[in-house]
Amino acid sequence: MVLYKPPRLHTAPLREGEENTLLDWAARRFPDILLINGRKKFEGGLVHRLDFETQGLVLCARTNKALKFFVDQQEKGLIVKEYEALTASMQTDKILTVIESSFRPYGKGRKEVRPVPVGNPIYKTEILSCEKTEDQCFFRLRISKGYRHQIRCHMAWIGQPIVNDYIYGNYKKESGQVYGKPGMDAFLALRASSIAFNDPDTGKRKQFTI
Questions:
Q1: Which residues form the domain of 70?
Q2: What is the mean pLDDT of residues 131-157?
């Protein structure tokens, strides 16, 4: 099944018994997903995660067989996700079509990541389109293999920080300022808007979009 994760909600618990996560919400209606031998402890049938600030679509298996199938599809790059993002920069004359790098953990508690131009594996963020709005840019992006904070880090790396990103943008968390607008505390302008994968029963391609 495909779930919608609101912003500022963890996809899965960080420790046993933790509530108020997307997985916890889904399990209240579909308790069987917690019986699946997840890729990590406490993840149940989740195939992938979105970070706390990001909203959008998450794929979840309801059987061990389906999870194994999806994990194989993911490793082959056959689960394709598209994102929508608003960025703070208006410079679009030198926008790349593909951003590529490896990653390394960074900072206190290794909570951030930084791009490494040469390394293994290499993660790609494709830029499908870019449109200027009144004072921002609207991007459509696509990935088939993802790393934690990949899109947020890649967009900042090319000078296009995502609006309201206090880690990789210029959001001043201490003062509650969002790009110089005092008193605002808006959501990260990043949404996982589409996911496509092969059906584990029929093999046919399926796509879900919001």
A1: 1-76
A2: 93
